[in-house]
Design a protein that fits this description.
Elements (H helix, E strand, L loop, with lengths): L2 E3 L12 E3 L11 E4 L13 H22 L11 E5 L10 E3 L3 E4 L1 E4 L2 E4 L4 H16 L9 H20 L2 H9 L11 E2 L1 H11 L9 E2 L25 H22 L5 H21 L6 H17 L4 H9 L7 H4 L2 E8 L14 H11 L3 E11 L5 E12 L10 E14 L2 E5 L5 H17 L3 E2 L10 E6 L2 E6 L2 E2 L16
Parallel strand pairs: 3-4, 4-6, 14-18, 16-17
Antiparallel strand pairs: 1-2, 5-6, 5-19, 7-8, 9-10, 11-15, 12-13, 13-14, 14-15, 17-18
Bound molecules: zinc ion.
The site of zinc ion has 6 residues, from helix 2 and helix 3.
C-alpha cells in the first residue's frame, strides 16, 4: 500500500507530491508517537482527514530519521517515551502549531477561499519535531529567558525543517541542477502555507506574512536594539524573527561546506547537509547557556568540527557566522579570563564543591554581582571525548514588575553558565563572564518582547496560542514556559516604546 505525500510545504511548489510506502511504526525501545484519528492506509485526496493523518505521521517520522542520522537513536522525549501527534486539533481553528512536552499539535483554519492545515506541511511538522528533539537533549533551554536562547529554539526547528527537506533526493537534484542553493529557494524558505494564511486571514503587513528565510543577509544586533514589530520579513525583537539570524548562520555554513567540497552533485549536497547537521546537533548538546547564545552555539560547532572532522570546516563555519555579524573563536571561549581564589576544578564533578571552593564562589559573586536569591549549580560540558569543561550555573530571580503593570509581583528564574577551568593550578573563569546587571536587563527585555507579542497568559486562561504563563508556586507567582508556539501573536500597529532598549 502507498500514501500520497507532500515532501516539503503545500505551497513550496517543489518537489512534486509523491505516492510512497509510508514508514513502518517505530521499533520498540525507541521514542514514539501516540497517534490520534488513525486512518486506513491509502492514497487519499489532499484536504481529507485520512490524507492529513498519513501526511503528518510520515513528515514526523522523516524528521526523526534525519535527527537520528545526525545525532543518536532517539530513545526518549523530554517527558518520557511517547508524545502525542495531533494532526488537527478539533474545535480550535487557528493558524498555529506547537510543542508543549505532551504533544506536537497542529491546527486547521479556513478562510479567503482556502483551508490551511499546519499538519500538512512537512516544514511545520519537522519544525515542531525539532523543538522536541532539542528539548530531549537540552531541557535547560525550555525555561531559558534570554532572547537569543528562545530564538535559537525557533531557529533549531527551522534548521531541522531545512535538513529534513535536504534528505529528499528529488529536491536536492532540483537545487543542484537549477543552481538554486544561493538563491531564494523552496528549502531555505519554510512554512510557506502558514505565512500565506497569516497574510490572507490576519494582515498582509504582518511580520510573518512571508515565510522565514535562511538565505538572508540579516545581521546580528542586540535583541533590545530591534523594534518589536515590523513589516513582512523584517528583523524584529521576536523569537521567530530573531531566529532568522541563526538560520542564516547555519544555512551559510552548510552551503560553504558544500561549495568547499569536491562533489557538487546532489550526493555531495547530502554529505554537506549531514556534516552541517552533525555539527549543529553536537553544538546544541554542548553550547554553554549564555546570553550571547548564537555565538556560544557557533563556537561549540567549531569545537565539534575539531572533534568530528579535524577542523576542516572551520573556515566554512566562521565565514557563515561572520556573514551575519557573529564573530567566533573557540580559543577565546575556553581561554582563562578571570583568576579566582581556590583550587582548580576536580577531574570528576558530582557537586558544585568539586568545581568551586567557598573562596572561588566569593570571588565569582564579587565579579558577577549580587543578585536576588542567587545560587550556583554544578554542570559539565563535553566538547568531544578529549575536552570536558566544568561549569557552574548561576541562578537568580528577576522581578518583572518593571516590564508591565500586569506583571507586578511576578518573578522569573534566570540561569547563566560560567565555564570554570584552571590557570596555573588555580581556579579561573573561562571566556564570557556574566554580569547580573546585564542579565536582568536582557531578561526584562525578553519578557517585554513576549508581552508585546501577546505571548504571556497572565490570567491562566489556557490560551494555546501563547508560549508563557504565570504560575503560582507556593507564595510566588512565576513566569514559566508552557509551549513553543508558532502562532503569530497579536498584530501591533502601534508598539509601545521599549523601556529596555
Ligand atoms: Zn517553533
Amino acid at each position: 500500500m502507498s500514501i500520497l505525500f507532500i515532501p516539503n510545504d503545500p505551497r513550496a511548489g517543489n518537489p512534486p507530491n509523491v505516492a510512497i510506502a509510508p514508514h513502518d511504526d517505530r521499533p520498540n525501545g525507541l521514542a514514539d508517537f501516540v497517534y490520534q484519528g488513525v486512518a486506513p492506509e491509502g492514497e487519499f485526496a489532499i484536504g481529507t482527514d485520512e490524507f492529513l493523518f498519513w501526511q503528518c505521521r510520515e513528515a514526523a517520522l522523516q524528521a526523526i530519521d534525519l535527527w537520528e542520522a545526525i545525532d543518536q537513536p532517539l530513545i526518549a522525549w523530554q517527558p518520557g517515551q511517547t508524545l502525542r501527534l495531533i494532526q488537527k486539533t478539533p474545535g480550535q481553528p487557528q493558524l498555529n502549531a506547537f510543542y508543549n512536552r505532551h504533544s506536537l499539535s497542529f491546527f486547521e483554519v479556513s478562510g479567503a477561499s482556502a483551508t490551511y492545515q499546519s499538519g500538512a506541511s512537512t516544514d511545520v511538522v519537522a519544525h515542531e519535531a525539532g523543538h522536541a528533539f532539542l528539548d530531549a537533549i537540552r531541557p535547560d533551554l525550555w525555561d531559558a529567558l534570554f532572547g537569543e536562547q528562545g530564538a535559537f529554539h525557533e531557529s533549531f526547528g527551522d534548521c531541522i525543517a531545512i535538513l529534513t527537506a535536504l534528505e529528499d533526493q528529488v529536491g536536492r537534484q532540483a537545487l543542484v541542477s537549477g543552481d538554486l542553493l544561493r538563491q531564494d529557494n523552496f528549502v531555505e524558505s519554510t512554512a510557506e502555507d502558514l505565512s500565506h494564511g497569516i497574510g490572507a486571514l490576519i494582515n498582509p503587513n504582518h511580520n510573518a506574512a512571508i515565510p522565514r528565510k535562511a538565505f538572508n543577509t540579516h545581521q546580528w544586533a542586540l535583541p533590545s536594539s530591534l523594534p518589536v514589530n515590523g513589516g513582512p520579513g523584517a528583523l524584529i525583537n521576536e523569537v521567530h524573527s530573531l531566529g532568522m539570524i541563526f538560520n542564516g548562520c547555519f544555512y551559510d555554513t552548510l552551503t560553504n561546506i558544500y561549495q568547499a567540497g569536491a562533489d557538487h552533485s546532489e550526493a555531495g549536497l547530502l554529505t554537506a547537509s549531514r556534516t552541517a547537521g552533525r555539527l549543529l546537533a553536537a553544538a546544541a548538546r554542548s553550547a554553554p547557556l549564555q546570553s550571547r547564545f548564537f555565538q556560544s552555539v557557533g563556537n561549540a560547532m567549531l569545537l565539534a568540527d575539531q572533534d568530528q572532522n579535524a577542523g576542516v570546516n572551520a573556515a566554512a563555519i566562521t565565514d557563515g557566522f561572520g556573514a551575519h555579524n557573529i564573530s567566533l573563536s573557540a580559543t577565546q571561549m575556553l581561554a582563562p579570563t578571570n583568576v579566582l581564589a581556590g583550587r582548580a576544578p576536580a577531574g570528576t564533578v558530582s557537586n558544585v564543591r568539586d568545581i568551586i571552593t567557598r573562596a572561588s564562589r566569593r570571588d565569582l559573586v564579587s565579579m558577577v554581582g549580587e543578585a536576588t536569591q542567587q545560587r550556583f549549580l554544578a554542570k559539565q560540558y563535553s566538547f568531544g571525548p578529549q575536552q570536558r569543561v566544568a561549569a557552574v550555573a548561576h541562578q537568580h530571580k528577576v522581578p518583572l514588575g518593571d516590564v508591565s503593570e500586569k506583571l507586578e509581583g511576578v518573578v522569573c528564574l534566570v540561569q547563566e553558565d560560567v565555564l570554570i577551568g584552571a590557570d596555573d593550578g588555580q581556579a579561573a573563569a573561562l571566556g564570557m563572564m556574566p554580569s547580573v546587571g546585564q542579565s536582568v536587563a536582557e531578561v526584562q527585555n525578553f519578557v517585554y518582547s513576549l508581552n508585546e507579542a501577546g505571548q504571556i497568559d497572565i490570567d491562566g486562561e489556557g490560551n494555546t496560542e501563547m508560549s508563557h504563563s504565570v504560575h503560582r508556586m507556593g507564595t510566588e507567582r512565576r513566569l514559566v514556559r508552557t509551549r513553543f508556539s508558532c502562532a503569530c501573536g497579536r498584530c501591533h500597529q502601534t508598539p509601545s516604546q521599549n523601556p529596555f532598549a
